Records
---
Amino acid sequence: MPQSLENHVPAKDDQDDLVFLEEHPAAPATHAPREVWRVMIIDDDEDVHSTTTFALGNLDMQHRPLEFVHAYSAGQAREMLRHEEEIAVILLDVVMEQDDAGLHLVRYIRETLKLADVRIILRTGQPGYAPEIDAIRDYDINDYKTKSELTRIKLFTTVTAAIRSYEQIRKINDSRRGLDRIVHASTELMSLHGVQNFAAGVLTQIAHLLGQETNGVLCVQECPENGCQELVVMAAAGQYVNHNNTQLTCSTEPRIASAMEHTLEERRNHYEDDAVTLYFAGKASRAFVAFLHTNRALTEIEQRLLEVFCSNVAVGLDNVELVSHLHNAAFYDALSKLPNRTRLVEILDATISGPGKDDATLSLVDLDHFAETNDALGHQFGDELLVAVAERLQSRLGQHLTVARIGGDIFCVLGDATQVNPTTILGLFQVPFSIEGQDVQLSATLGLVRLAEHEGTGADALKDADIALKRAKSMQRAGHFYYSRSMGVEIRERVRMMHALRSAFSQNQLFVVYQPQIDLVTRRPVGAEALLRWQTADGKFVSPDKFIPIAEYSGLIIDMGEWVMRTACRELVALRAAGHDNFTMSINVSQVQFRHPYFLEMLRRALADTGAPPEFVELEITESMAMEEPDMLIKMLAQIKQTGVSIAIDDFGTGFSSLSYLQRLQIDRLKIDRAFVTEITGSARGSSIAEMVIQLGRNLGLAVIAEGVEDERQAQILQSLGCPLAQGFLFARPMTADALNGWLSNDALEGVA
């Protein structure tokens, strides 16, 4: 016979927290005792079976050895359990054929097979699948552990506890009614949400079990490494109802405090003639203890029932508190304790679907220049400032409003329109905030939505408020703006186009066309401008004026621009191979693309990979882009020029160029905007601006090209003014690469002849 560990006393950290009934000589049982305890292992991992039997196979529990029954899937276990008898403990894996196969098997065992006595220990190697409060409530499991925490001693302790529980339940037929009450009480408790409700339910259920009035307190004691803290009342009833959320001390309640300290020290229940003090073992350096007055001494069976009940409740208290912490983390801001974005959306949904919608207004409150304050005075100071803002919004706006924090420095106020209005909210920021003895003056910008005018979900309302906030910011800070439907249509159309553009780019619906550039004297082509086009799946074209700003806004222009650059360079190489040697390829560069930190690297790589000669590649930048950050541009253009690529300023004359900066820019060509070309024959001012640009280019030694030339008279006037080059519908419309090659080889030469 192997050595028995029945009298083994594990170290304190290895002790199982469950408390079971003392073993008493039992009356003859209905079921004859077996020679072994039968333990069923249900797991799809063979190693789990072997390690479990290796750890427990040579040990005695309750003076009997163990006999193991093995199932390697939930389906196999279903079949075996129909015939197997006297299974005392089931060690059940959560994840087998499906993620929740173990949980479904629990329901099958309890409800279909009606096996109420067997103890089920849920084990998981994946903590994410450990049962939460719903699973504990809905499935009759007795314990759950992660496989990583089940050392040999802890596995022995857990299985021993389960076998003892099984044995006791089988023996105590005379306490069946009490056990039924425990099951009912546990079910009732598991249906309660929140730590406070659960704790109050524990007091109520204990009183029901004993047939007593509810009169007592339940406390929690934290015991970190630096020593145990005071007892904190989690629930109170009867004469102690006013003690909720207070500290319980010997000075306030000497009898209760003394009884609880004694119970915590001995880690067991204590019974008096008129009171009971119950111990609930908690995890993570935490313990729970309850004190209830009784009008009589408890019977032995009542004491036994309480022992079993306390072991069940201990697990429930730990888990409901864990769920409560997870709930707070998911729905409340850790710093301000206000509802976060997720919780606010829930509140908004309820408001929109309720009777208060017509009178409600939602306002985003964005603190102006908070980042600068945070950087200058430190993050701790910034956190204290955010807390101060949260407290002022809550205390000054009234209890009937919802105040939330949905971002770093963005708060939200929801409530009646009479209170949620710009005057009231912005007025709160007129008085400085005092932080660490320092006065800090803040201002805010608001984006507001009247829910009566809103159609959609709470998340939609929050998006609309954000749209209004962005509009308020664009119209100067320290102001406000109310959302209107026209704003929403504009923004949603932009978002729709952004997604469509991203999809079109990935599905090769974008393509490059080329518009020839002509020598006005010889009427021969000297180059072409590469232009990006978008044709949708139904054959419709989307104007570049619409989709280029969207590409810039979304950042997609970076990848699109590089693709256009490479495509145009490859076409240039192909044209040169076809014999068109003296031909320049002009490529437009977006401001967003130009500012990208790796733009130079993109350009160099495109030239190297395609083999395009840089002296025949020209980059076009806009005049407004050239003038916005001239110092940065001067440095950038110098680096670009080192690659051999030339630079042109597009749409010249439409901006507000500084001639002093223009002289410093290393550019090669000016491009006359089509608006001034049109004026040559269609305006009283005639050719004055076009003539001025041509003369400026001549004086600065820059080439000049006119775009948008649509009739012969415009071409003749430009030629007479000294403009050497032009492009426009008069000469050729933008065309595909294949069409350009054919046009250069045939149509263009015929046109010149």
---
Amino acid sequence: MLLGISWATPASAASDNGNCETALCRLVTSGRQASLAWPDFSDYTERIRKFYEPSSYAFAWTRDGAATEQAKAMIAAFRRADAKGLRSEDYDAPRWDGRLYGLSDGTLADFDLALTVSAMRYVSDLHFGRANPGLFHKPTDSDEAIADLPTFLRQRLAEGSDVKAALEGLEPPFPGYRRTQQALEKYLALANLGVLPVLPGTAKPVEPGAPYPAAAQLAAILLRFGDLPANTTLSNGSAVYDSPLVDAVKQFQLRHGLEPDGRLGKTTLAQLNIPISRRILQLQLSMERWRWVPHSFPRPPVVVNIPEFRLRTLNSAYQTDLEMNVVVGSAYGGHKTPVFSADMKYVVFRPYWDVPFSIARAEIAPKIEKDRAYLAKNRYELVSAAGGVVGQTDATVAQLRSGILRVRQVPGPENALGLIKFLFPNEHNVYLHSTPATELFAKTRRDFSHGCIRVEDPEGLAAWVLQAEKPEWTPERIHDAMNGNDTFQVTLSSPIPVLIVYSTAVVLASGEVHFLDDIYQEDARLEKIIATRSPSGR
């Protein structure tokens, strides 16, 4: 089954085997075809019936006993599925040569149905992805391109004049998706060049200028990935770790979210030894997640990529307008930032921080008990359910622990939310905000928060958010509001989509490919989900 993709057609509408007068109709109604790598297609039975009934079950993919040009184009697409981040085996790619070679009157029905089933599976996977959780681009949404899958299949593919263009129209329209596909094709080609050497471990980090017996093997790896320019000549008999290898390692470190210090330490060596097959998988999973994103937005969105620790605002062409570092939820202690989407509706200047009850009970209450002046020192207030400030006593601290009272931090430069926050109401109570702890943005790994997202350039983000519809909000006015005395909220008349996503492979506009740590183990989970959809295990 296609993980929630129903196409809004009830399976109960299936007709009786006895109503069929042709072999093709009987095959369709059975819901199973033994010649397919994935024989059970019962989840598609009614849609396939709707595909064939208008033509009274005439063959759609052959004419006069031969495959049509459209059929050949579809088969070519199945064979290229790996380059789209899919699995060609899922669409019977290894079996089509035999089917074409053995095409005869006795196999036409089997051939036609196999192609229809494979095409429906391919169209669905190409457009929505193989494991779409429905967080962004819901498979049950009315989708103009393929809301009626049987009609799309007949008009645009089986009878279409340009199958390739029709299929390309199903893919995400974003430059980042296309760059990821190009990178995947490059890495698939790199994998065909042979196995790379494995670098030996070292007792301590190798410093620039130090002897390194595996320098030639290191050069081979860096050359393969493009971090070391082609035709580079190594000095010192390839036994010393010096320039240009050091410069190439720094570039490699930058692309893999590491501190670009040029030292060959444990973490850098581990990244250098990750096989190309793993990088290919990261790119495939990135393309899968691109398919979960809506193909259009009412306004250009804000996108935060969790493992990259990076925020980007996009323009109407889905190119980056503004980007900055962010701090996301810690991978430990139950503080992970969730993957979701919501609409930004409010900007709050000089916010209070209403401390979540879990933090108040587990972190703040114990500190109050150790230091009775803790609240005052950190500009916290105890607040009643009605919103009134209450004094600190043993009784009110106990009420804080029980949840009767809450604690908030008053606005100001030391407030944990900084001087501005960006609200997109959601069930997770996650939002974007500034922070007084700006030193964290200089770290390479930035998962330090309780789940909310701290932004490095809050004034720049505020300008981008506000100036499109409120040009009176100049950078100067934003700065003054953040550093003034009043707490107030600006409501956006046109909400801005915010996507919190998770991708460990990112391809920049320059074509440079960055691979990131799977800090929340989301790649590992997605890999397992997709693995269950093998032809033998669906």
---
Amino acid sequence: MELVRNEEKNKNFRERAKELVAQMTLEEKAFQMLHGAPAIDRLGIKAYNWWNEALHGVARAGLATVFPQSIGLAATFDEDFIEEVADAISTEGRAKFNAQQKYDDTDIYKGLTFWSPNVNIFRDPRWGRGHETFGEDPYLTSRLGVRFVEGIQGHDENYMKAAACAKHFAVHSGPEDLRHSFDAVASKQDMYETYLPAFKACVQEAKVEAVMGAYNRTNGEPCCGSKTLLQDILRDEWGFEGHVVSDCWAIKDFHEGHMVTAGPVESVARAVSNGCDLNCGNLFGYVKEAVEKGMISEERVDEALVNLFTTRMKLGLFDEKGKTPYDDIPYTVVDSKEMQELNLKAAEKCVVLLKNENNMLPLDKTKIKTIGIIGPNADNRRALVGNYEGTASRYNTISQGIQEYVGDDIRTLVSVGCHLHLDYIENLSTGKDRHSEVKAICDASDVVIMCLGLDSGLEGEEGDQGNQYASGDKPNLKLPGNQQEILEVAYQSSKPIVLVTLAGSALDLSWADEHIPAMIHGWYPGAQGGRAIAKILFGDANPEGRMPVTFYRSTDELPEFTDYSMKGRTYRYMKNEALYPFGYGLSYTKFAYADAGISTDVVGTDGVEISVKVKNTGDRAGVETVQVYVKADREGTPNAQLKGISKVALNPGEEKMITIKLPVNAFALYDEEAVNRVSKGKYLVSIGTCQPENRSKKLTGQSPITFEMHAEEELVLV
């Protein structure tokens, strides 16, 4: 849906904000730049807390629909659906806000400014916060980021439904334990090819209301006080008109971690002068002193305040109740039956079928008497939700989902199998204290569902409560604790085994890939995750998820975690063969491609249209993810890159003609000086079910259809 805003209305909001700010004292102005902005009764300004979260549902404020974690939503490869989910999130956000305002609750996590989405690039699988992102690809992240922002902010011409925030600007992906002092060094080429595109799209296409800086430095400058990022790129180059917020307590890192300033006043001056408007934290309390010492101009403070109050006015917070179309959304929409149904659909859409030897899946309920459900993630609520989560009214783990699905028709035997990451479950045991139970359940079962992986206690943000690896990052890609061992114990039973992994990042599943006949990956699938997985296991739902990240075989093939060069990273630059490639995912049905064509074989300013007929040749309804990749066929260029997606639902025997338009910039690459150009020469455009590389072809048994195009002259793009 096209985003339409009333420009006259926006100008009016800004003028009203200017008039309001002009009446404030300098001290009042300073405290309005803190995330917990106090009331100014004499001006009719209510207290407002800017800090709220909505990564995959309204977070940290009680009841909410807990959708799949962002990385799972990314696996849908479905931008229309992402907007539908984000719209549902903002509906719940408004409902909760309306109720909170009714009872004068202005506490933290009670506002309409949601610090989501996280559009950082998941460049390294060790990064603990990668599951908050939309994956490793700039194109996919851009498309999903834009639609998430549009879903949050809505399409009313006068008022925003809620305010979204693209974070963490701009080069941020670990290590978590170094983030307060680390300098992420990235070339101009990598910045513009990889790290900046999603932010640019959110700013210029979706008109995102806020941008959050990162903790680390980028190329020597602390991100929350970077002239290059916040002024030169964000404001001057991209024309950003919203407000900039610091990450939480990041300003003190300037002098405590990065050591680029002498103390708090200088840190505040650097942040505010370079374009940071709002401080998540308390250091902007020094703004008054910095102005009085001549370190910040009061005009710049006024500019920041106008940005902030314009946002509040766009949300309708300075208009009488009933003025916005969202003021009457009732609390009863929160985690309602309709929301739970949407959540179940989301969980079904995000699951990726990795392997299905001899069509072992879906399971035939009529042929099973006893089913074993084994593993630390069988009944692990934390493995459903990831981090930055709300509180659902009910959670459906894998074990609960299967038991609910089969009812009394099938006997279920359940064991945790082993601890998620320790060698024992009971403290006084000698270790491996459920191995015999695993063997007994396998012996008694007709089929065994192994539920392994991670949860947000093993991968997450630095300082997250209960995070096993205190930094939040993963040391490697291995299944932790005794998980690999119990998988091999189950395999030795010779019973049919289905491996279900829940994790927000890549795992080394190379042994399982060789030995286990059926495997699905569910990410962190949300509160309805167990129901969705049960439906997929038994064929009531057909998996359609695709990999938004590469599953490597080992971190040994990756550069150092601290190396921000993209060389050797992600499907776009890797040299080795992936275990499970980006864009990969199987279905219970088969799709055939035919009658493909292109509108032109010349790369020009009008781009190109690629069309293909897709037919469901199997006996089940399914959804195909048609992917278009572009490769500049010359030395020193990235591997084929995703540049187009189309989701198509087909009944058995049904066929549809799909057309995907690629703009000219799908063929452009940035050079070392960040000039974006289409160079003369040959380009390969591939359309199909997967990447045009050997591992994807081997796993899917299909090869994309590839066209050769030529650029007859160089085109420099603005």
---
Amino acid sequence: MQKLIYLFIATLVLTTSCEKFLDRPPLDTITDKEMKFSKKEMELYANQYYVNFPQFLDAFYADNSSDNMVYGSFDYTPLLAGTVTVPNSGGGWSWTNIRSVNYFLANYQVTTEALADVGTYIGEVYFWRAWFYFNLMKRFGDLPWYNAPLGTNSEELYTPRISRSIIADSILSDLDRAINLLAPVAQSTPQRIHKDVAVAFKARVALYEGSWEKYHEGTPFGVANANYNKYFQAAADAAEMLINSGYYNISPGSNPQWDYWSLFNQRDLSGNKEVIFWRKYDLSQGLTHNGQAMLLLEGGNTGLSKQLVDDYLCKDGLPVSLSPLYLGDDSIARVITNRDPRLSQTIYVRGYARVIQNGDTSSRFSEPDLNKTGSIRNTTGYQLYKGAAPNLESQGGGAASGVGATTASILFRYAEVLLTYAEAKAELGACTQEVLDATVNKLRDKVAMPHLAVSVGFSDPNWDFPSLSPLLNEIRRERRIELACEGYRYDDLMRWAATHLIKAPLLGAKFSQFEGKTFDPPLSGISVNANGYIAPYLNTPAAGGWQFDPSKHYLAPLPTNELTINTALTQNPNY
């Protein structure tokens, strides 16, 4: 019995010690109650948010939610497809990140560190609050504004939503704080947010809100007494700050036929003056992606739309509706002939290398993967090439599968800033030839395309926005082409209230060019419309265009449980 008692006591001590040890916070993370806000703790705290930046393939495939690409399922984006329902809970109405950020911002003042040593981490967290709030505002519109960590019984949890314009102002205010605190790019730590990232993001947010308030004016999604020019000016000012810094530049390049494409398949973008911020992957640290496997070997269950392909100008600077250089679309070879070189650097063309290993090309593109099924098929006949890096050794892994790729992911690039500046100035009625030469025409020089003039010089019967000025139409076209398949188009359609584009049938290439070609397995089940174009959604409810309801689908619905818990909240229009 005595031995049993000693054994019990020893076990109790050991168990208690283990419990105390397990109760300790992880040594590589920070918990709220343990924080003293040292420099290292602030760095670790800010680190947790970086996973919210898009991964390599996310940026390209985000255009599946737009008229640029046609995903294999018509209801890939429920808001566009009109299939969204009011959720009982969730639905994106999440405040976890906001609470986490607010805890930091409410308590970091206890630090004993000098502001010069930790200010950039404080700036990062202000950036992240702006990031999280912007995503919530795009999805839901009006929001409650929380700038302090709240308890479960806090009265602020039961407040109503406030106007999106106030939310936008608060986001821009957070970004101003971030700009003042963040390190300049030349003094920043690699792969950490710096001052110019916050400036670029401010320009993006301001342009979005300015156009949203202008083009939704008078609708249920508009803002009372909207002052959208205030936001256009803020966007122009932020973009101009980066332009005038002289740090960034669009290089004309030495090979206009490939320089645009090559920007998107590099492993290291350090010092690249066209890139403001990028995500690095490193095989030695296990940080890789499978994006090259998707781009090199598979169709990804998506494809570029005819609408996007038709928007590329001819080499004389005229649209396909007017240019004598346009050869029609009977084949991909004819489609790309005499066109803006960015087109042939965005879609696969017969003969392009798909895999180069040890200097040898083991696979070349012949026909799009229309014959495949599921996630590896191409849906339209126009297969995405932008972002592909056929030389597998350059990926770091060298595996024929393309898994373990380390191609860099661009998060903010200078081209977006230039296009934001041009669009904001055009909206303000202040887009001069000098502005165009410093923005749009810099991008065109890179691919040896004719300059855009303020007068434009032609009238395209196929302009997407015939009620707007020729200049604004061409600036919007340039934005679509330059940023194609980089995840911007959905937001652009939303902020421009572009219902007519959302509800247009999505098509692909002419099917006749693939008939009689060798496919293994043979082609089958390809939907083709009466005019002979591949129509992936022909036998779906989206045959005539997405079933998008412009009276409600510009915003998502709030979950019903939140409306029950907080009766001061109101549902978005017409749900």
